[in-house]
């Protein structure tokens, strides 16, 4: 079996071999090449020690930030390449990092320490494929299987439990039975993992082609209650509403699958109905209602994303999308749409409509997109015509008001807010002289 390896990777391998060292492309890039996918990056492993790697590439720029762990980065025009010495690892004391790293002269020893068989293959042109743990067979059978004893692998690095799910959903594979059982039995270990590491794996699952597969795996493996316990209450929660033929959890999965792979939108889809179990009520006819679930859900989403150590901007965006996802457009005119754009922001307004379309697709009954599609066109027209919907778009600013004699302070913002409301209602008023005239009258009125 031969692979098309980029020239800058071949160059590194050949230079190491010229000095009588072994060198192989290793890990996920081999997996992807076998699957016919374009690898996102390449890694090289070698029996050369870090100092020897630096000596081989002394005419190149190298980075030694990972030297203690055997990694030297070789800088080339086509890209940076990590070159790592074969290694074996000492005991893992914290479920994340080995207590020590020891260099090895044997490739198989290095491959033995890796997480899953599909990631434990190596290749170079002279030797061909090195596959001591039958990773290629597992690729053909479409299964994720631990290298060796899965419990030992998960004891070493607890995050591998979540990575098994992530690889399964990204590749569309199943998890091998013993690996699956170990994931389920040892899921509690994820409580010891930092939220930042959990967040990154969760986000990769959410941004996969079919995130519902990963979310269902998390549910079936009892991992959801560890990383997103707020979602557990939605499982099997019947809505008793003619607009919904799915329980809350299955509806959420549908909306996530129908949303584009944009992180803010996928997160909003995942959490948009998280407030429903807290707001459920039934009327005399037994019809279920969830009054205020959008507001409750937005607040719960904030807390969840804060716990996951998400950036504030991401938290803010997701909360807005959830808070506004029940907005009804049937009677909206330009004024209402402008106020909505002001509340949501022009960068999020189309994300909101996308979320609402996905929500509607996953509801019961006839799917009607006419109103959403029409409002989307109207919002585009408003934005393209640059009609004002926020204060920065007014033809005057605070300095102009100060020049009129207003004292800097709260009154400046109040007048600008008032002027914006008038301009939203009457776009023709967004002219400097007209706005100054209105401001003068207001000044005399309040002086």
Automatic annotation (TrEMBL):
One annotated GO biological process: tRNA processing
Record-annotated CCA-adding enzyme C-terminal domain positions: 297-438
Cofactor(s) in the UniProt record: Mg(2+)
InterPro entries: Bact_CCA-adding_enz_type3_sf (IPR050264), CCA-adding_enz_C (IPR032810), HD/PDEase_dom (IPR003607), HDIG_dom (IPR006675), NT_sf (IPR043519), PolA_pol_head_dom (IPR002646), PolyA_RNA-bd (IPR032828)
tRNA nucleotidyltransferase/poly(A) polymerase RNA and SrmB- binding domain residues: 172-231
Secreted found in the keyword field: no
Pfam families given in the database record: PolyA_pol, PolyA_pol_RNAbd, tRNA_NucTran2_2
GO molecular function: metal ion binding; nucleotide binding; nucleotidyltransferase activity; tRNA binding
The UniProt record lists the keyword Nucleotidyltransferase: yes
Every Poly A polymerase head domain range: 23-144
Keywords carried by this UniProt record: Magnesium, Metal-binding, Nucleotide-binding, Nucleotidyltransferase, RNA-binding, Transferase, tRNA processing
CDD domains, alphabetized: HDc, NT_ClassII-CCAase
Family, as annotated: Belongs to the tRNA nucleotidyltransferase/poly(A) polymerase family.
Name of the protein: HD domain-containing protein
Organism the protein comes from: Irregularibacter muris
């Amino acid at each position: 079996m031969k692979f098309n390896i980029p020239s800058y990777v071949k160059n590194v391998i050949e230079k190491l071999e010229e000095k009588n060292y072994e060198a192989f492309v290793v890990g996920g890039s081999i997996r992807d090449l076998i699957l016919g996918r374009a690898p996102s990056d390449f890694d090289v492993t070698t029996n050369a020690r870090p100092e020897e790697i630096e000596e081989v590439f002394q005419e190149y720029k190298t980075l030694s930030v990972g030297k203690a762990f055997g990694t030297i980065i070789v800088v080339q025009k086509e890209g940076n390449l990590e070159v790592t010495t074969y290694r074996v690892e000492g005991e893992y004391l914290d479920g994340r990092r080995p207590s020590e790293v020891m260099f090895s002269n044997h490739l198989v020893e290095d491959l033995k320490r890796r997480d899953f068989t599909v990631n434990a293959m190596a290749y170079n042109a002279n030797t061909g494929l090195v596959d001591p743990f039958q990773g290629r067979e597992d690729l053909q059978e479409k299964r994720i299987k631990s290298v060796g004893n899965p419990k030992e692998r998960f004891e070493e690095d607890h995050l591998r439990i979540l990575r098994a799910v992530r690889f399964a959903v990204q590749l569309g594979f199943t998890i091998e039975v013993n690996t699956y059982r170990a994931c389920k039995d040892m899921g509690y270990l994820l409580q010891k993992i930092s939220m930042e590491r959990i967040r990154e794996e969760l986000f990769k699952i959410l941004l996969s082609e079919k995130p519902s597969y990963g979310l269902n795996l998390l549910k079936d493996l009892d991992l959801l209650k560890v990383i997103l316990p707020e979602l557990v209450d939605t499982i099997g929660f019947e809505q008793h509403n003619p607009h919904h033929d799915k329980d809350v959890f299955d509806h959420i999965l549908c909306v996530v699958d129908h949303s584009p792979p944009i992180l803010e939108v996928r997160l909003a889809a995942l959490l948009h109905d998280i407030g429903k179990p807290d707001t459920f009520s039934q009327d005399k006819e037994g019809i279920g209602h969830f009054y205020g679930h959008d507001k409750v859900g937005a607040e719960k989403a904030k807390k969840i994303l804060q716990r996951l150590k998400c950036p504030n901007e991401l938290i803010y965006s997701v909360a807005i999308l959830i808070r506004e996802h029940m907005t009804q457009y049937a009677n909206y005119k330009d004024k209402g749409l402008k106020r909505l754009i002001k509340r949501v922001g022009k960068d999020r307004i189309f994300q909101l409509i996308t979320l609402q379309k996905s929500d509607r697709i996953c509801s019961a009954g006839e799917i009607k997109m006419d109103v959403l599609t029409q409002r989307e066109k109207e919002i585009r027209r408003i934005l393209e015509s640059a009609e004002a919907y926020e204060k920065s778009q007014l033809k005057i600013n605070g300095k102009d008001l100060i020049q009129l004699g207003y004292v800097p302070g709260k009154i400046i913002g109040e007048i600008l807010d008032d002027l914006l409301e008038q301009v939203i209602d009457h776009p023709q008023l967004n002219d400097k002289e007209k706005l100054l005239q209105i401001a003068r009258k207001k000044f005399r009125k309040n002086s």
